Amino acid sequence: MTSTRPYGEHVPAPGCPTQYTRLYEPIPESGRDALWARLREEHGSVAPVEIEPGVRVWLLLGYQENLAVLQQPHVFSRDTRRWREAVEGRVDLSRPSFSWRPNALYADGAEHTRLRTPIVDALGRVDMATTERTVRRIADELVDSFIADGRADLVSSYAAHLPVLVVNSLYGLPDSYGHMLGDITSIVFDQDAKRGEEGVARMHQYFAGLVARKRNRPGQDLVSWMLQHPIGLSDNEVAHQAALINNSSHMASTHLIGNTMWTLLTDSRIRTAHTEALVPVQALLDHVMWSNTPFQTLLGRIALQDTRLGNAQIRAGDALLLGFAPAHLDPSVQRDDHGSDTGIAGGSRAHLMFGAGPHACPGRELARMIASTALSVLHERLSGLRLEVAPEQLRWTQSPFLRGLNELPVTFVPAAPKGPQEPDPAPRPRRTATTGPEEPEDLLDRLLNWWRGLRG
Ligand code: HEM
Questions:
Q1: Exposure of 278 by Cβ count < 10 A (0-12 exposed, 13-18 middle, 19+ buried)?
Q2: Does the residue 455 lie in any domain?
Q3: Residue 319, by phi and psi: left (phi above 0), alpha (psi -120 to 50) or beta?
Q4: Of 98, 134, 137, 438, which has fewest CB within 10 angstroms of its CB?
Q5: Which atom from ligand 1 is nearest to the alpha carbon of 256?
Q6: What is the CATH number of the domain that holds 153?
Q7: 354 lines ligand 1 (CB under 6 A)
Q8: Is residue 434 part of a domain?
Q9: Range of the domain at 113
Q10: Which atom of ligand 1 is nearest to the CA of 355?
Q11: Ligand 1 proximity of 158 Cβ (cutoff 6 Å)
Q12: 261, 252, 247: which is closest to 297 by C-alpha?
C-alpha cells in the first residue's frame, strides 16, 4: 500500500509489508505483462519494487522515463558502487546479479570513453561478411549434431551455444575454447555458491590466458586489436573488456533466437507471413524485441542527485531498474497490428532492447546478424519443424531480468548431417621433427586440459 501526496508523489507507508512489489517471487499466473500493467495502474510510470528480499529499487515503467534515464549520464550513473545499498554494505557487488566490474559498462564520463573506445573500434574492424560465414558454419555444425535424430531442444543444443562460439571465434580461438567458455559461463550461474565461485575463477583464467596468448602471438581478432589500440589499455583492462563483450552478448542473443523461434512455432499468422517472405527476418526480430523482449529489466542506474521521475521522488544513491518490457507496453508507444495481415505492427527499431545514450550496445548489428543467420540456418535445414509439446508446457525462466525459454523441444524430418565445413582456426603449433621445440603450455592450454578432464 502506498499513500499519495497531493501532487501524486508515491510515499510507501512506513512498515507496510506490501508496499514494494516483490519481483523475485514466482511470476503470477496472469503473466508478466499483467504485472507490469498492474504496477503502472498503481504507481504510474515509476514503481517501488524489491529484486531480492530487502533490496529495493525503482522500476521504470514508462518509455520516456527509461529513455530520459539512459540519456542523462550526469544525473543517472552506471557506476553501481554509488548505490547506497553498496556504500552501506547491504549488497555485495561481486555477485553476478548485482555486479560492478572494471569495464566500460560500469564506467561514467571520460573513464567510460577510455574503456569503450577500444571495444567500439575493434568491433568496427570485424568483417561482417566473413563473420556471417563463420556464424553459418557454427550453426550448421550445431544442426549436424542433432539433425539425424528428428528431434532436438533448440535452446540447449543450439541457441545457448551459438553466440558464445561466435564471440570465441572473434577472439581468434578454435571452437573447443568456445565450448569451454560456454560451460564455464553456466558454472558461474550455478545455484551452488561454491561451484559458482569456481566458475568465476575459471572465467578469470580464460580471459587472462586469452590476453596473454594474444600479447605473445597477435592475430586479426578483437583482443589483439584492443591490445594494439592507441588508448593503451593494460592487459588486465583488455581482459575485462573482452569478458564484457561475451557477457553482454551471450544470454541476450540466446533468448533472442529462442524467443523468435517460439514466436514462429506458436503464431501461425506470423509463421506464414515469414515463410511467404512478407516479413523480413529483421522485422521479425524487431517484433520479438518489442513484444517478447529478452532483457525484461536491467539494473541499472544510480541517481547522483535528488530528482523527480514520474510520480516518484528519487533520492541520491537510489538504484533504478530499467524496465524495457514495461516500457514497450507503455500506452504512449503501444504499437498495434490493426490492418496488418502479418501479425506484425509496422517495423520500428525504436524499442529499447539495445539501450540508448552513451552505453548503447555497440554490438547491435552483430547481434542482429547472429540471430538472423541462426534463424535462416534452421529455416533452411529443418523441414516440418513443430513444437514437441503444447505451448503451455514450455517452461520460461523465472528471473525478473530475463525472458527466455528453459527449453524448446521440437521435432522435424530427420536428415543427413552436412559434415565438417571448413577447418577450425589453426590450433597452436606443436613440436614436430621440422618445427623445432614445442610452444610452452600456456594458461589457456592448462584451462582446456582441466575442462577436458571435467567432461571425461
Ligand atoms: C540480442 C543481443 C544483445 C542485446 C539485446 C544487447 C543489449 C545491450 C544493452 C541494452 C546494452 C546497454 C546496457 C546499459 O545501458 O546499461 C548493451 C551494452 C553492451 N553490449 Fe550489447 N546486446 C546484445 C549483443 C551484443 C553483442 C553481440 C555484443 C558484442 C559482440 C555486445 C556488446 C556490448 C557491450 C560491449 C556493451 C557495453 C557498452 C557500454 O557500456 O558502453 N552486445 N547491450
A1: middle
A2: no
A3: beta
A4: 438
A5: 1
A6: 1.10.630.10
A7: yes
A8: no
A9: 21-425
A10: 10
A11: no
A12: 252
Range with the poorest average pLDDT among 202-216, 363-377, 441-455: 441-455
* Cα distances (angstroms) measured from residue 227 to each of 36, 67, 235, 248: 44, 33, 7, 20
Cβ(245) – ligand 1 distance below 6 Å: yes
Q: Please report the pLDDT score of residue 405 as a whole number.
A: 96
- What average pLDDT does range 110-123 have in this prediction? 98
Q: Could you identify the residue written with the cell 550455478? A: 190
CA 346 / ligand 1 centre spacing (Å): 25
The answer, yes or no, to whether any atom of ligand 1 lies below 6 A from the CB of 353, is yes
Question: Is the residue at 119 inside a domain?
Answer: yes
Q: Indicate whether residue 288 lines ligand 1 (CB < 6 A).
A: no
Ligand 1 atom at minimum distance from 360 CA: 12
For ligand 1, the distance from its centroid to the CA atom of residue 253, given in whole angstroms, is 10
By alpha-carbon position, which residue is closest to atom 41 of ligand 1? 359
Is the shortest distance between the CB of 401 and ligand 1 below 6 Å?
no
Q: How many angstroms separate the alpha carbon of residue 83 from the centre of ligand 1?
A: 22
How far apart CA 345 and CA 283 sit, in angstroms, is 9
Classify the phi-psi angles of 232: left when phi > 0, otherwise alpha if psi is within -120 to 50, otherwise beta: left
Closest residue CA from atom 2 of ligand 1: 253
The answer to whether the beta carbons of residues 381 and 369 sit under 8 Å apart is no
Q: What is the pLDDT of residues 336-383, one digit of tens each?
A: 665 566 666 655 888 999 999 999 999 999 999 999 999 999 999 999
Given this model, what pLDDT does residue 13 score?
A: 44
Domain assignment of residue 330, yes or no: yes
Q: Is the dihedral of CA 25, 28, 31, 37 positive or negative?
A: negative
> Cα of 276 to ligand 1 centre, how many Å?
32
pLDDT over 90 (residue 57): yes
Mutation choice for ligand 1 from 250, 289, 361, CB with most ligand atoms inside 8 A: 361
Main-chain phi, psi angles of 94, to 5 degrees: -90, -10
Residue at grid coordinates 535528488: 306
> 349: helix, coil or strand?
coil
Specify burial of residue 161 (Cβ count, 10 A radius: 0-12, 13-18, 19+).
buried
How many domains, the chain?
1
- CA dist 452 and 456 (Å) reads 6
Beta carbon of 253 within 6 Å of any ligand 1 atom: yes
